[in-house]
Amino acid sequence: MFNIFLALSTYFIFRHTKGYSVSDLVIVSREEWQARPPKLVEPMPNPVPYVIIHHSYIPGACVTQEACVQAMQSMQRYHQDERGWNDIGYSFGVGGDNRAYTGRGWSAVGAHAPNYNNRSIGICVIGDWTVQLPPQSQMDVVKKLIDYGVQTGKIAPNYMLLGHRQVRDTECPGNAFYEEIKKWPHWIPNPPNDSVDQRPEQNLNSGASASII
Ligand SMILES: [Zn+2]
């Protein structure tokens, strides 16, 4: 009996020290998905006024923890090695295993949406959502992650929610998912026409050709 108690305690301590848990929101730390170190971290001030929603397109949807970890690793490899960026571009990934994966996190400048990288949280909902919607449980994790960001002062309470396609020429986050996020709290049809942030890394992410991610 004591051993069972000990095992359960260890489990909960593990959950609370490695990747904290807020109600049933699980945020997976970089160590847990065995992220490579970033080449460089640019601090980003909080709270940020924007949340930008993406899909991964490739890799496709993941269901198991193992597959979602592999998806995060493959995106990081692609962004660091092929695109030449400092790290995986997104602030967070959300998998079909219903866990949120820490990418650049709450307080580092991202590489996911030109002109918005230094004032937004970019969330990649892993999968191709052109025709299909993500499962409801996966979308619920995105909403909980945003709520948690607001509660902890990382995202402004009056934040503006955008799909990636609203800020550059891309199909991201997929037609089906884009129609869905239009119904979410804080979505705005027209991003304000304000100052442009030009950084070399962001320019890499702002090519003229149309994109799907
Ligand atoms: Zn995108």
UniProtKB/TrEMBL annotation:
Q: Which domain of life is it from?
A: Eukaryota
Disulfide bond residue pairs: 62-68
- One Pfam family linked to the record: Amidase_2
Q: Where is this region: Disordered?
A: 189-213
**Its family?**
Belongs to the N-acetylmuramoyl-L-alanine amidase 2 family.
Listed name of the protein: Peptidoglycan-recognition protein
| Organism expressing this protein natively | Cryptolaemus montrouzieri
Q: Give the record's keywords alphabetically.
A: Disulfide bond, Immunity, Innate immunity, Signal
The record lists the membrane-crossing segments as none
**Where is there biased composition of kind Polar residues?**
201-213
Q: What is the lineage of its organism?
A: Eukaryota, Metazoa, Ecdysozoa, Arthropoda, Hexapoda
Q: Which PANTHER family match?
A: PEPTIDOGLYCAN RECOGNITION PROTEIN, PEPTIDOGLYCAN-RECOGNITION PROTEIN LB
The yes or no answer to whether the keyword Magnesium is present is no
Domain Peptidoglycan recognition protein family: residue ranges: 25-168
Function, as annotated, reads:
Peptidoglycan-recognition protein probably involved in innate immunity by binding to peptidoglycans (PGN) of bacteria and activating the prophenoloxidase (proPO) cascade immune response. Binds to 1,3-beta-D-glucan and PGN.
Q: Where is the N-acetylmuramoyl-L-alanine amidase domain?
A: 36-174
